[in-house]
Amino acid sequence: RQSLQALIASLAGQTTQVEAGPLVPGASGQMETQPVLSPADRSRAVGTVRNAAVADVDRAFVAGRKGFARWSKMPVEARAACLDKTADLMEENRDRLLALLSAEAGKTLDDGIAEIREAVDFCRYYAQQARKLFGEAEAMPGPTGESNRLLWRGRGVFACISPWNFPLAIFLGQVSAALVAGNAVVAKPAPQTPLIAFEAVKLMHQAGVPADVLMLLPGGAEVGAAIAAHPALGGLAFTGSTGTAQSINRTLAAKTGPIVPLIAETGGINAMIVDATALAEQVADDVVMSAFRSAGQRCSALRILYLQEDIADGMLEMIEGAARELNLGDPALTTTDVGPVIDEKQKAMLEGHIADMRKGQKVRYAGTVPNTGNFFAPHIVELDKPEALTKEVFGPILHVVRWKAKDLGKVIESINATGYGLTLGVHSRIEQTIRTVTEALDTGNVYINRNMIGAVVGTQPFGGSGMSGTGFKAGGPAYLMRFALEQVISVNTAAAGGNASLMAIG
Ligand code: UN1
Fold first, then answer.
1. Which member of 58, 149, 156, 331 has the greatest number of CB atoms within 10 A?
2. ipTM > 0.95 for the complex
3. Three-state SS for 385?
């Protein structure tokens, strides 16, 4: 840990450590470069980025079509091997990636280590799944004199648009799935975190993915809109806000060309229901972890806690006590529990929300913040009714509502009424309560008597439905299929004289 800390300090102290730009054959990029500032200290530039010019989007698709023609014909094993190699390279370069996650994304050391682990797991998991799914064409049952086989192939140039809160794991999760399914990829990282994406793409190139098969287009909404609108787009994976996903959906719907899939993972007003039988110490621990870890900047994070009123006062005291113990500050220090929020805009949004809450609700706890960088302290807000929270507030703010034992049905209704369905926590020792709640809600990931963040790849496939996304779960067995095109080949084997070579097409 000491050596990691020294490494992080040395990277944070240097400017222009990483000079990122578009990774597209023939790309020009914009004229100007911009500094990428550290969320923990706005006077520090972690590096510079030259964003893609809008004209580079078309260049990427033109190159990508050529790359796709070769890549999609390669045996799945060759593509899967590139993912495994990327995982190895990430492990070899772990310290550097960790330093960048800390400096550019404000990740604490624990979060940074977990994120690298997750990125490695995504690559290995999708490699392994692809071998199973896309290996041999599956023979389908059918009449004699006919052979039917189901093949999976890439869809073309797939776009991956990813968020700043998991700039390595979600970025590479999308990209590795799209690649191993046989697509060429145009990736647009979040404008706040282009450097780590740049490093990740370079590792993938080093692992054997050709330059015209994986391309990076750093930039903002303009670049994203041009990608979604491009006529050669084969499909799009997006993780970010519900509003942006809806806007991408409209762009795709307005196209006159091919109809392509959207894989969207968005937000939630995630709830935890705690009844009077719950184990208090466990609840306090899980609430603080779920609401404040990663400065609440996870789409899985707890936003609204429903406490049965009999235990609410005691529970809140414990939660507040635990929140007071959190160390807020420089993410590069091993003692830090909660780092900064990503940028000024997020900080101002959170401050605005608390100012609004002060108008009718009770702000029960407000932590203290360091005066450098974009820090926003954990807050606890008591709501008079759940409807007082009308939107996802992406940061370390825990909202609390009390409920009466007879009103479990109303709690369920309120949660359903949000229209979101990403994560749900339940703390109870009554099996019937757990059953009732779980069955009544469509939430994608339900966590019982534990915290509700940190879904593990291959163990807890992650994603929601409704306003939380299209529901194709990342890190699960069905994810890769969404990136691939199914082709069924039916051969009249009698007419072809039982020609064995025809039966092996594809
Ligand atoms: C996100 O925050 O955008 O389960 C999704 C978790 C993470 C969530 C990632 N895998 O906490």
1. 331
2. no
3. coil
